Amino acid sequence: MNGLTAHQARQTVQNLFKRFSSEIFQDTNGCYSSKRVVAAVSLIVMVIAFFADLVFHVASSEYIFDGFLVLTLGSLGITGVEAFANRKTTAITKIEADVNVDDPESSEK
Prior knowledge:
- The chain is mainly alpha-helical.
- The protein has helices at residues 6-23, 34-56, 62-99, 104-108.
- It contains 4 helices and no strands.
- It is flat and about 65 Å long.
């Protein structure tokens, strides 16, 4: 072992989980994303409805379950597309800054 006590190891895991759970709802700018929060809430409701139907035989409407499924997948899909679009925009901006497009003297050299 590396000398950590059980309490220190538990604290480390708790701190990592707290940081992960807060960062998972933030976008690339560090702001909380409403799409991610809505997706997480709808996913939790969908899982609860699934287990309620599976364990307690509580019949939920097929349309309600499908609605939460579409909401979850749509929210997470939009968030994923934004992440890739953001990377491309950042890369293009960085290339333009390196080339220095607005400087007429750079084209003369």
